[in-house]
Amino acid sequence: MKLSVPGRVTATAVVAAASLLLGGSIAGAAPAPAVAAAPDIPVASVKAHLTQLQSIATANGGNRAHGRAGYKASLDYVKAKLDAAGYTTAIQQFTSSGRTGYNLIADWPGGDTNQVVMAGSHLDSVTSGAGINDNGSGSAAVLETALAVSRANHQPTKHLRFAWWGAEELGLVGSRHYVNNLSSANRAKISGYLNFDMIGSPNPGYFVYDDDPAIEKTFKDYFTGLGVPTEIETEGDGRSDHAPFKSAGVPVGGLFTGASRAKTAAQAAKWGGTSGQAFDRCYHSSCDTTSNIDDTALDRNSDAVAHAVWELSS
Q: What is the C-alpha to C-alpha distance for residues 19 and 223, in angstroms, rounded to an integer?
């Protein structure tokens, strides 16, 4: 539509006022800083953590299960990395099945502590194997994202907290202990919890939790940008560490690449892989080792973890 001269003057005034409200540049004012994009998470670095977790399992009876030496060694490995990167770490202790368990909580200094964005994963394996996809994959991606925050000296508006849960394989024991021991005021400060449990399955799917619309959209938009179709996660619904947070009223979301359910022909057509075979045929088995990882899925999902952390904490 062609504007008359008075109309152009009015429109210019409206644009100028909007620019001021949005922090734009009028009369030489500096424009508002753009939100920094999340860095690429090197899949080689994520895999290096998986190699360390495999070595820990191998040296400790072949697993990293709750109450076993391999679990505590895994926790010590993650904690040392975070301490060196400038995090404030805390170990939360609990008891399950007559054995002592541990959660590891890491806070990045700064940000509004009344608005906390959390990202977490369970660190324990089952007793039958090293648990490299389940859930070394999620644990390593969350760890490398936390280290990327430190390398970038990222200073988000919201406060960032990362967590590695114990005894998930016994029924979400560690994460439930954490949530149940939060005061109602501190629960209310968590603006979102992101869960990553199995994100490198060898016959992968790309599944997004649909629990919170804003978090779901953040992940779906990221994968749309890659040209990767996603589906709503249903196989593990309520079976991982997001469940206690959701029950407490915290907005939750997350990613998943599939466990024992078989990939359909339609899913194989859009994602590749083998139809009729489980997403992870080594699920809860001794073959869940470093050879049980799809590098492409691990890479894409690790980058998606960082994207969501940056986006939702800005």
A: 32
